[in-house]
Write a structure and sequence with these properties.
Length: 233
């Protein structure tokens, strides 16, 4: 009788598990019922804990955000991050310029410089993503067969660039180590990109960095092109 009570209690607990989070194999994108382990332990976690684990670049936190949350801020986040990067470049450009003339034409030129920096940052990020897509499609074509696979990977990459938001505090509290902080932010964004690729396509640790390496090569190629055109980047 005691055994039957325990079985009924166990069944009642299992019945409260959401259907899309039943059970699955580790690193599996499709729900499975063979391993008898919860898909996503973060389903009951506070959003702050999830965010902290995402900042720590934990794969399971990334997996929860990408597959078990409904986030539709990819475009807005991308634009805001690009604005942050454009502002940093524009500020550095103004620091290098010694012209303090308050003339309206000078103000217009400075405003145009900001728009130009935003366009350059957008083209660089686009070339970086294109390099990643081309590399992954060439190395693992079976992972990117459908249009939905490309869209999911693009969303993951856009979300993983959230580290660029740290550029603004780095400039507000400017000090002698600001260039070092900017370098650390760049490394953090690349690590986030690597985790996003790894989680989305269920890859090992090497292939995402391989794709990021070729993405950086293409991005630097665009930078060299702008420099040959005589533009300050």
């Amino acid at each position: 009788m005691l055994n039957s009570y325990k079985k009924s209690k166990r069944k009642s607990k299992e019945s409260h598990i959401p259907s899309n989070l039943e059970y699955c194999l580790p690193f599996s994108r499709q729900p499975q019922k063979s391993c008898q382990k919860p898909v996503d332990k973060y389903i009951e976690y506070d959003p702050v804990i999830i965010l902290i684990n995402a900042v720590l670049c934990k794969a399971q936190a990334y997996r929860h955000i990408l597959f078990n949350t409904k986030i539709n801020i990819h475009g807005k986040l991308c634009i805001f991050c690009l604005l942050c990067e454009a502002y940093i470049r524009w500020l550095q450009l103004q620091d290098s310029s010694q012209n303090t003339d308050p003339d309206d034409l000078i103000r217009y030129a400075k405003e145009w410089d900001f728009y130009r920096m935003f366009g350059i940052a957008s083209l660089e990020q686009t070339s970086f993503f294109i390099g990643i897509f081309i590399t992954l499609w060439w190395v693992t074509p079976e992972m990117l067969k459908r249009k939905s696979d490309f869209i999911l990977l693009l969303k993951a990459l856009l979300l993983s660039t959230y580290g660029k938001l740290l550029l603004i505090p780095a400039v507000i509290w400017e000090h002698d180590y600001t260039p070092l902080c900017l370098a650390f932010i760049k490394v953090f964004v690349l690590i986030s990109n690597s985790q996003a690729i790894r989680v989305t396509l269920n890859l090992n640790r090497i292939l995402p960095w391989f794709a990021i390496f070729f993405g950086l090569i293409l991005e630097n190629g665009v930078v060299c092109l702008f420099q040959k055109m005589g533009w300050d980047v």
